[in-house]
Amino acid sequence: MLRYGLQIGVAGAGAAAIGLASGFDHPGWACTAALLVSRPDEGALHARSVGRAASVLLGALVACGLGALDPPSGVVAGLAAAALAGVCATVGSRWYVMPFFSTTIVLSMLVARGDEGTGHWFAERVGETLVGIVLALAAAWVASRLAPRRHAAPSS
């Protein structure tokens, strides 16, 4: 657990520092990604990293693609409602699809607000997610070098 504590602490702190220092509109997105993909098991870490990256990318494509068409508010609300239904329907899934739905909801609302262009929100959400994932992977690598796993002594 010491190794995992070191791993998740470095990933979360590094992502928070980058998010805050860079001036992102939503500096917590990188930190959230780093903390949600971090796992003590290397296989689970890699699977969640790929799953989160793909899910966020696809959700951002859907929300920003629709937003680029400048649809009426009812269409945006319908997309958000469908994504919310998707979250509810897949909550017990072993596939890591919830980030697709949450990204679709969040970005569809941000794009509809019209403060920034779709490209801005796409780049920020996907970019920060990738920063968080890279930091989680790097922190796991560092933690494995600083605090190697101890194997139980064979019993006689």
From TrEMBL:
InterPro entries: Memb_transporter_dom. It comes from the Bacteria. The chain crosses the membrane at residues 49-69, 76-97, 129-147. Keywords: Membrane, Transmembrane, Transmembrane helix. The keyword Nucleotide-binding does not apply. Pfam families: FUSC_2. This is Integral membrane bound transporter domain-containing protein. It comes from Luteimicrobium album.
